[in-house]
Amino acid sequence: xxxxxxxxxxxxxxxxxxxxxxxxxxxxxxxxxxxxxxxxxxxxxxxxxxxxxxxxxxxxxxxxxxxxxxxxxxxxxxxxxxxxxxxxxxxxxxxxxxxxxxxxxxxxxxxxxxxxxxxxxxxxxxxxxxxxxxxxxxxxxxxxxxxxxxxxxxxxxxxxxxxxxxxxxxxxxxxxxxxxxxxxxxxxxxxxxxxxxxxxxxxxxxxxxxxxxxxxxxxxxxxxxxxxxxxxxxxxxxxxxxxxxxxxxxx
Length: 251
Hints:
This protein is 40% helix and 17% strand. It contains eight helices and nine strands. The strands form two sheets. A seven-stranded mixed beta sheet has the order 3-2-1-4-7-5-8, with helices on both faces. A two-stranded parallel sheet has the order 6-9. By secondary structure, it is of the alpha/beta class. The longest helix has 22 residues, at 218-239. It has helices at residues 17-25, 44-54, 70-83, 103-111, 133-150, 166-171, 183-194, 218-239; strands at 4-10, 31-37, 59-63, 88-91, 116-120, 127-129, 162-165, 199-203, 205-207. Helix 5 (133-150) packs parallel to helix 8 (218-239) and helix 7 (183-194) runs parallel beside helix 8.
């Protein structure tokens, strides 16, 4: 069994999935791919099944009935990776915004003792290209807002290109993470840092998607804002030794 599983959530990614999986399997590291498809009407799930049949033991597919959210897709992939006793679980987008060739660097950073490694746009050597100015400003603002209110040390708090050590996932109460969508990323980072795990970053060049349609909506932006404010309240209550258990609304 592969020591590393790469989790790729998909919804309507028929143009991207096969070339991405091909590049992943060609990397000089031992890894497997877990595709989590949310009932894509464009046939992405069928492509994933064919890739799994052509690469037994290296490609797995989790089919879900519909769009259930990015956060729950990650959790489904995490659970499969833990069942397979993979040492590391890597999450990435299917649209080539995250460079597959950076995976060995993520793993090398993890080998230095880091428990969560983020492929970051906001450390020296990292950047975002082919993104509109409003998109860049939104990303920068969201990161600054989350870092300040939540005390996060990582520079790229909304990055989905991450490498988790299995022990981090095993110790995390995944069922108690209330955020869904892209806000899941900030909440997961907050919980990992709060638990005392070591977080590192490696620079990446983030490319805006070339094929397909972006999944980021105005509703996702509102959810992210709510998630940061909710976690900020939890942080304040925790410092005040007040039980925040009553604040368990989905973000």
